[in-house]
Amino acid sequence: MAVVGVLALQGSFNEHIAALKRLGVKGVEVRKPEQLQNISSLIIPGGESTTMAKLAEFHNLFPALREFVRMGKPVWGTCAGLIFLANKAVGQKEGGQELVGGLDCTVHRNYFGSQIQSFEAELLVPELASREGGPETFPGVFIRAPAVVEVGPDVEVLADYPIPSNKVLYSSSAVEFQEENAVPEKKVIVAIKQGNLLGTAFHPELTADTRWHSYFLKMAREYGEGTSNTSVAVSGADLSSDKQTRYDLPIFR
Ligand SMILES: NC(=O)CC[C@H](N)C(=O)O
Predict the structure, then answer these.
(1) Residue 181 falls within a domain, yes or no?
(2) Which residues line ligand 1 (CB under 6 A)?
(3) ipTM score of the complex?
(4) d(CA 140, CA 122)
(5) Single Gene Ontology BP term (predicted)?
(6) Dihedral through CA 133, CA 16, CA 76, CA 3, nearest 10?
(7) Is 11 annotated as a binding residue?
(8) Taking Cα atoms as reference points, which of 220, 199, 214 lies closest to residue 77?
(9) Engineering a disulfide at 155: which of 21, 85, 151, 214 sits with its beta carbon 3.0 to 4.6 angstroms away?
(10) CA–CA gap between residue 114 and residue 106 (Å, rounded)
(11) 3-class state of residue 62 by DSSP
(12) Is 57 in the active site?
């Protein structure tokens, strides 16, 4: 049976596990390299990427994570997890931080500014809506969020965010404030896919909308079908019944 793992070193892993549970899927916490052998897809949550990288290094997880990605197993990084999966990150703390890599892109670690510049925005998500149904928009929760500032030719852009002309913009040297009306609206990439890898700069696990989770579960299922006769592990929850679903954690929005 194919098992979905959630990297549980730091950050919003409990929220991801709760979101999977709402879809009737049991997510397994992963903290050690050998545990990657028991899972067939992995979610790397949001949190603080420098801290998460230090913990991953301490637990000697980087070689096993890179091997997992190299094997073509589905991995989804949200926020700090997206930074982990990027081939290149800019705006890092001094000394940089180790990355897993795999996604042919450059990510700016704190593109939108500091913690207090966190925000919510309705994002246009045509690919997600066409695959999963539901509204054309998704509630994007951006917490000291990164953004994708460059993508390679094999990367599919799944969502971008139009930056109002007076908001923080990325430049190669530093994050800058632009004068109001100084530049026309510019779009920055906030969700991408490249083969087995999915990256979102925002936090779907903090919303009640489970479409990104079910999108990723489909990627996991497709991968399972391509390699062996496995299916994603579904826990006993009967989603069709009108029994009230129990949530482990409060949902942010
Ligand atoms: N919410 C998040 O995951 C924030 C990520 C943060 N910008 C970092 O560098 O780790």
Answers:
(1) no
(2) 46-49, 79-80, 83, 109-110, 143-146
(3) 0.95
(4) 6
(5) pyridoxine metabolic process
(6) -100
(7) no
(8) 199
(9) 151
(10) 19
(11) helix
(12) no
User: Is 205 tagged catalytic?
Assistant: yes
The CATH number for 102's domain is 3.40.50.880
Per-residue model confidence (pLDDT) at position 163: 85
For ligand 1, mutation pick of 43, 48, 88, 115 (most atoms within 8 Å of CB): 48
pLDDT per residue as tens digits for the range 188-243: 999 999 999 999 999 999 999 999 999 999 999 988 777 654 445 554 444 433 34
Each residue's pLDDT tens digit, 24-46: 999 999 999 999 999 999 999 99
Count of domains forming the chain: 1
Nearest CA among 45, 85, 89 for reference residue 65: 85
Burial (Cβ within 10 Å: 0-12, 13-18, ≥19) of residue 140:
buried
Phi, psi (rounded to 5 degrees) for 190: -125, -5
Report how far ligand 1's centroid is from the alpha carbon of 7 (Å). 15
- Two tokens, residue 131: 């695959």
Q: What is the pTM of this model?
A: 0.86
Cβ of 1: how many Cβ atoms within 10 Å? 9
105 is catalytic: no
Give a yes or no: residue 212 inside a domain. yes
